[in-house]
Task: inverse folding
């Protein structure tokens, strides 16, 4: 049996597990790294893919009113002028006159003294967070372009394309998953605040009179995504109604979903009522009207927009910190990731009890192929002894370890295997024939 010791993991413990077990590595590590960048290894990729799949299922495939796009990361610079990013997407920056370290002044307790060396901090100035690059072969004559700081604008500029090609009826949404880039002044807290990250965003368009009901519905879906899909603890997620004087320039109402990360309660995702701000500004700036014609009433208007905006890297970090568990199993301390089967990078690992017994290995390979075809997220694991394999699988959060032993090969137990359950450490013997059905049943 397993006795839970504690559930509060430190950030160092999570970072260490992520590196040790192939989830997340420092970006460009062999060259000393690059601040604000992280590389995902095999299990990190698998975790992110599972989160994206669940998000897509809930917000796109599970509905009939969502239209996904995959817009280019590089966009005409006029997009960022009309959206307000060129002039307003900035953070307040201060620089230490002595050690030259830079800080976001709104994150400092004392804005006069450098937290690094105690030196005097210079005057505050606004620092635009968009990464600039240039397009074209000759740099002199090249046009400046920006790496998008959010995926949202790629949807607003395609609003008319969707209306003209698909003819959706209001209310409807556009959805996009993709990379975004922000030149954060002080990237920090592992993958929480980085310079390159992935967003999962929806722009949901509605009649101006109906925004409140749609806002409430998307708020509910967001909670279901966090609790039912990602398995986050209910007491670790908080809804913060952003006060009117703190709202972004485009928003009339925003709820931040916050999560209790090991480094404090911080924003996990946002839900904003953006009114007609974006469609109106792009319509005006491009001189292409971005409107909707209601065939039934003949009314022509600019729809209003509600935006649920999720950061994939923050979602993955919340899942990892939520799942990190220490307990004592069989008198020994262990670490495991208590992940829902639907989100675990590996759903089941298949092992021969001994790797030097060909008859065990070939049977294990057979079972492995069967499960791999069915579930995809299956790993063949014959590395080290069985105890070590369990440890490793526990640390990557594998819910089921299947072992082919001598009892699988003959006697009354012929063609049965053991399933070992990650959380309790308990084992049961089931027939190979019923294995797929058993795992399916255990995974709901
Ligand atoms: P913060 O206040 O933490 O900087 P924000 O309010 O600027 O975040 P939004 O512009 O609302 O963030 O972006 C939507 C989502 O994108 C955020 O809720 C977060 O999940 C993610 N996100 C934003 N900036 C970053 C970043 N630098 N690193 C990782 N994820 C980010």
Result:
């Amino acid at each position: 049996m397993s006795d839970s010791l504690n559930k509060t993991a430190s950030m160092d413990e999570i970072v260490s597990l992520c590196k040790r077990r192939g989830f997340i590595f420092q970006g460009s590590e062999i060259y000393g790294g690059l601040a604000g960048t992280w590389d995902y290894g095999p299990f990190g990729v698998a975790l992110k893919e599972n989160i994206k799949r669940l998000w897509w299922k809930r917000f796109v495939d599970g509905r009939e009113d969502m239209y996904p796009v995959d817009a280019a990361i590089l966009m005409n610079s006029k997009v960022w002028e009309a959206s307000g990013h060129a002039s307003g997407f900035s953070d307040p920056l201060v620089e230490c006159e002595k050690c030259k370290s830079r800080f976001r002044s709104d994150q400092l307790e004392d804005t006069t003294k450098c937290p690094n060396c105690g030196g005097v901090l210079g005057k505050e100035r606004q620092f635009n967070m968009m990464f600039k690059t240039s397009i074209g072969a000759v740099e002199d004559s090249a046009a400046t372009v920006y790496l998008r700081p959010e995926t949202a604008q790629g949807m607003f500029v395609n609003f008319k394309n969707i209306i003209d090609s698909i003819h959706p009826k209001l209310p409807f949404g556009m959805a996009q998953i993709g990379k975004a880039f922000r030149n954060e002044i002080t990237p920090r807290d592992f993958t929480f605040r980085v310079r390159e990250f992935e967003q999962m965003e929806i722009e949901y368009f509605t009649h101006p009179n109906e925004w409140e009901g749609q806002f409430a519905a998307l708020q509910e879906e967001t909670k279901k995504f966090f609790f039912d899909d990602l398995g986050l603890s209910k007491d670790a997620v908080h809804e913060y109604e952003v006060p009117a004087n703190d709202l972004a320039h485009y928003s009339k109402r925003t709820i931040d979903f916050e999560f209790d990360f090991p480094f404090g309660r911080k924003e996990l995702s946002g839900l904003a009522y953006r009114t007609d701000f974006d469609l109106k500004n792009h319509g005006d700036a491009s001189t292409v009207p971005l409107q909707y014609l209601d065939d039934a009433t003949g009314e022509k208007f600019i729809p209003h927009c509600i935006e649920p905006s999720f950061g994939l890297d923050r979602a993955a970090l919340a899942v990892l910190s939520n799942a990190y568990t220490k307990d004592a199993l069989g008198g020994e301390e262990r670490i495991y990731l208590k992940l829902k089967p639907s989100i675990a990078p590996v759903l089941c690992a298949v092992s021969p009890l001994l790797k030097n017994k060909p008859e065990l290995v070939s049977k294990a390979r057979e079972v492995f192929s069967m499960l791999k075809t069915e579930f995809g997220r299956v790993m063949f694991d014959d590395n080290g002894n069985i105890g070590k394999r369990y440890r490793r699988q526990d640390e990557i959060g594998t819910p089921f370890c299947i072992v082919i032993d001598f009892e699988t090969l003959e006697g009354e137990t012929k063609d049965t295997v053991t399933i070992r359950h990650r959380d309790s450490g308990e084992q049961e013997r089931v027939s190979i024939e019923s294995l797929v059905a058993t795992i399916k049943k255990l995974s709901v």
Summary: The chain is about 30% helix and 30% strand. The two ends are 22 Å apart (CA to CA).
